[in-house]
Amino acid sequence: MALPSFLTTDLCDANQDRLDAGTLAVLPPIFKAFGKQMNFHGLATTLKVFEDNALVRATLETEGLGHVLVVDGGGSLRCALVGGQLGLLAEKNGWAGIIVNGCIRDSVEIDACNVGVRAIALHPQKAAKKGVGERNIRVSIAGAAIEPGDWIYADADGVLASRTALV
């Protein structure tokens, strides 16, 4: 098995100055991993929604260009913001991954998708579809601020958000 192209532990070790300066953040270890890609990275596209996934679907229907969709769902544990159909959309449209500050469902289907997904928990209930929310704004995921265009790095050890690309 080939080694991944990066490890978040190595990125943290090599970038202590950025951690100290606040230009590199480690997201709290609250996320569970789903999807076939344990390691993924890309530029952040951000959404802020609450118990409504219409904007999540609309965004994943667009060309992903290897980006990571970061969904600030307010940490809600009352419904799922991403399910199997959206996992397939992410894969089909070239998204590198999805980070959900909230729940997902259809975990078996998502695990079959060639995309990386991180979420707080699983929940069988679907979200509303009213289209309420905001795109490409600064979001806060478990206390870590993420701007559109930040670099997201995720692996088995955690998730990082960096203002610039890391080597």
Summary of the model, kept short:
With 167 residues, this protein is an alpha/beta fold. The chain has five helices and twelve strands.
Task: Please tell me about this protein's structure.
It is built from five helices and twelve strands. By secondary structure, it is α/β, with parallel strands linked by helices. The protein has a single domain, classed as Ribonuclease E inhibitor RraA/RraA-like (Glucose Oxidase, domain 1, 3-Layer(bba) Sandwich). Strands 1, 2, 3, 4, 5, 6, 7, 8, 11 and 12 form a ten-stranded mixed sheet that branches. A two-stranded antiparallel sheet has the order 9-10. It starts with 7 loop residues before the first helix and ends in a 5-residue tail after the last strand. The mean pLDDT is 96.
Binned, the helix content reads 10-25%
Number of domains: 1
Average pLDDT taken over every residue: 96
CATH topology: Glucose Oxidase, domain 1
How many DSSP E strands? 12
Structural topology:
Elements: H1 8-14, H2 16-21, E1 24-26, E2 32-34, E3 40-48, H3 54-60, E4 68-72, E5 80-82, H4 84-92, E6 97-104, H5 107-111, E7 116-122, E8 134-135, E9 139-141, E10 144-146, E11 151-155, E12 158-162
Parallel strand pairs: 3-4, 4-6, 5-6, 6-7
Antiparallel strand pairs: 1-12, 2-7, 3-8, 3-11, 9-10, 11-12
Describe the structure using short key phrases.
alpha/beta, 167 residues, Glucose Oxidase, domain 1, ten-stranded mixed β-sheet, 5 helices
